[in-house]
Amino acid sequence: MRSRPPFGDDLRAGLGVPRNPRRLDSSPRSRVWRVELDRGPAVVKETVDGADAGERYAREVAALRLASRAATPVAPAVLGTDPGRRVLVIEYLEHRRPAPDWIIGYAAALARLHACAGPDVATVLPRWEGPDETDVDAFLRLADALGAMVAPGVDGELRALTERLRQAPGHALLHGDPCPGNDLHTADGVRFIDFEQASWGSGLVELAYLRIGFPTCWCVTTADAPLLDRAERAYLDTWRAETGTDVRLDLVDACVGWLIRGDSLVERARRGTVDHLAAMAGEDWGWGTVTARERFAHRLGVVARMTAGQADLRGVSALTADLRHRVLGRWPTLRPVPAERP
After folding, report:
1. Which residue in 2, 65, 120, 130 has the most C-beta neighbors within 10 A?
2. Residue 212: in which H helix or E strand, if any?
3. Minimal CA–CA distance to 196: which of 63, 73, 84?
């Protein structure tokens, strides 16, 4: 394993020779170092592993450059790039332990990030891809396997929902994985890192993380209703301040979409490999703060509450309430999602 970061001639010419390299924790898909430059501490990130490494690198660089438009910083500054080696040099930010009500500052920073996208975002990043018919089929197969009653109209409700998500308006700069750990709580506010999955679309699909329990993340947490309301209000107020426009706060479709995606039960490297909903019926596995079944049970409860009284999701509401009852009855030792982040 390389102990020193790759730092080519062009980076050295612009930034000097890096000193005192120290490896930092990262996913297997990247190597990250903290180094000292003449200008101060910096982070060197090398994107590795997989046929999509070049795409992930390009997304991150593009997203960071878009994020640099924010009047209040929402991401580290880019100091240098080496596309040939897929190396990125960014400013080092000191993370502090988040406050108990951290999701309020997080939500405001997320709105500022989303507002960074200009009309050119679609030329440098792909559009966000939501659940599709494959996800609907897998979810309904699981419901059948668990003995739930699936009303005749549920299939149509879910397919209509996936189409609404596909056409959801908005050109927000989406982080792609705005999870605890990818948010740095600095003395100057929240900054986001690790933009390898960045895209553009409706900001509501990421604001929904707070309600549904951080669906792409190892660190699943929940918060009580008053705190969630304050965080979502902070998002709406910040969006208005940044853009001069209002967002209609309707997170139901986004939360249902995250529920039916089996890939939201596993870490990124395992996504797109098998039907994870079907696998969960046969075995449970740990990932971060909860197990796959605990994630699923939590999301079922959230969706059942949010869809209650929704005419276009009446069947989904009944199904998710029934499924949650059956899941908790079949696996009675499942724990609730924690309220505090590690």
Report:
1. 130
2. helix 209-212
3. 63
User: Quick one: which H or E segment has residue 296?
Assistant: helix 292-307
Under 8 Å CB-to-CB from 250, ≥6 apart: which residues? 204
CA distance 183 to 329: 36
**Per-residue model confidence (pLDDT) at position 2:** 62
Nearest Cα to Cα of residue 277 among 237, 323, 239, 317: 323
Average pLDDT over residues 311-324: 97
How far is residue 218's CA from residue 265's CA, in Å, rounded to a whole number? 9
List alpha helices for 36-151, DSSP H.
53-67, 102-114, 121-124, 133-145
> Which of 190, 232, 192 is CA-nearest to residue 210?
232
Q: Are 212 and 299 in contact (CB under 8 A)?
A: yes
pLDDT digits (tens, 9 = 90+) for 140-161: 999 999 999 899 999 999 999 9
What pTM value is reported for the model?
0.95
* Residue that has been written with the tokens 């924690």 in this structure: 338
Over residues 22-35, the pLDDT tens digits come to 999 888 889 999 99
Helix (H) / strand (E) containing 80: strand 78-82
Token pair 């929940």: residue: 222
The predicted model gives 260-284 an average pLDDT of 93
pLDDT of 146 reads 97
Is 63 in contact with 193 (CB distance < 8 Å)? no
- C-alpha 201/C-alpha 181 separation (Å) is 23
| Cα–Cα dist 14/147, whole Å | 63
Structure tokens given for 290: 């909860």
How many angstroms separate the CA atoms of 207 and 114, rounded? 10
